[in-house]
Amino acid sequence: MQADNSPNKWLALVGLSLLSFTAFLDYTIVATALPFIQKDLNATVLQLQWVMNIYGMILCMFMIAAGQAGDLFGRKTIYFTGFILFGIAALGAGGASSIEWLISFRAIQGFAAAIIFTVGVALLPQAFPAQEQTRAIGIFSAFNGAGLAVGPFLGGLLITFLSWRWVFWINIPLIVFGLLLCMPHLKPSPRPDYKIKIDWLGLLLLIVGLGSLVYGIIFGEQTGWDHSLTWTFIGTGVVALLLLIAVENRVAQPLLDFSLFRNSHATLAMLVCSAAGFITFVFMFFDPLYLEIIRKQGAFMVGIILLSVPAIQVIISLLFEKLVKKTGVFNLILYALLAALLAAICHVLFTSSINMLFVIFALMLMGYTWGIANVGSISAIAQSVKPEKLGGAIGTVFTFWNISGSIFLALTSVIFHWRESDALFTGLAKANVAMTPEQQQQIQGLISDPQHAQVVITQYFSGKAGDIYQLFESSFMAGFHAVAWFAIVIMVIIFLAALALSKK
């Protein structure tokens, strides 16, 4: 099918970009409302975590299936359906009368987002000729970064002048306007020239496998890694995914096409998405804690400093067409992986007094990796995969982003707490400070609440409170640096794998 060469393609691009902006906005804007949701709906901390976790969990489970559904049944129809679901769920979430209803509507949003993130991207190549696809992908990805960047700020405004419910309801006018712009100008997507047969067994194994694995990781973080249910869920997930591999290699029309892994561009896209998953899940979790606990920055300044990441991502997206012409997609992805490695090395050098410009430089490196991973992976897939299989391929690649991020965050949380606890209690023993098991447990749980930590430490050890709080901070940095060293190891492995791939 020929791409649309009329001016209407730009209306389609603006509409698709605005809709994508809405979905990415929802990724960050909801976090600003959590304290107000907790108060208004009487939610526990565990329930509040599920408001965020259920979204990502359902998203991971259905991205590949959503992409393939677009390939099989028509991307325009599936995409339109996804946004109807997203809008209905946004209305329901904003009007939720209990935390259970809010979590349920967030699950529906996660399912709809799986459609939006995969099918929306796959619509771009069919709307633009090959020579304009890179520019369109760059503009589209710039809107994504803008959605991530503006989320916390817009959320603060809406909550201040209206209520937390508007962080969900703001989606509705954006969805309506975006759909009005793009839907009339999108052409039907190419359909396979063979009889459609849905791989229901593969879909079931994928849902059980990814769902159990992600839930096990979340459960382990919240409940403990020594809990039997943690490993029951993780074990079920691993077994289901192994069965999926065995089944898919024997199915004529598999849900997960493993021939994609023989495509060097697609494999490279998966590698850079894995690196970006580390950055977006791990560094963007620990860096705000470092800025607040160690650098004593307030919430507003933390937000301003962290804007370095999506700001660079937006710039990279807008310049992507020129960068591709100069170096090619393959080299850009290699540079992005090198930037991720340098960012990890920078984190090892973070201290309580290092120049803040150095911290911002590390964040900018992360933004570069994020930006290239976003647009570069899409471009690499669009150049190397048949149009009728594009949705499933993009869904597979971005599933790697989310799954690798979830797994890396779980692993680094274990590494951080082990190293932080070891450093803290070793330091207390050297200082001859005796603590009861209850006091140890309470002190250990204060790592993300420095102000409360000062109060508790002063209450327990009034004479030595200052010295012990310094030990508390140094223990945090010990855990932080352990995470950074782990990041270096992972980034070296990913970079060497990409380098070997490029030589082939």
Summary, kept brief:
With 504 residues, the protein is mostly helical. Helices cover 82% and strands 0% of the residues.
Shape annotation: globular
Q: Tell me the series of helices and strands, N- to C-terminal.
A: HHHHHHHHHHHHHHHHHH
Helix content: over 70%
The pLDDT mean sits at 77
**Terminal residue distance:** 32 Å
Largest sheet: none
- What is the count of DSSP helices, taking H or I runs of 4+ residues? 18
| Strand percentage | under 5%
User: Total strand count, please?
Assistant: 0
Output the radius of gyration: 23 Å
How would you portray this structure in words?
This protein is an all-alpha fold and 504 residues long. It has helices at residues 8-41, 45-73, 75-94, 99-127, 130-161, 166-169, 171-182, 200-223, 228-248, 264-294, 299-306, 308-327, 329-348, 356-384, 390-430, 437-444, 450-460, 465-503. The protein starts with 7 loop residues before the first helix and ends with a helix.
Topology overview:
Elements: H1 8-41, H2 45-73, H3 75-94, H4 99-127, H5 130-161, H6 166-169, H7 171-182, H8 200-223, H9 228-248, H10 264-294, H11 299-306, H12 308-327, H13 329-348, H14 356-384, H15 390-430, H16 437-444, H17 450-460, H18 465-503
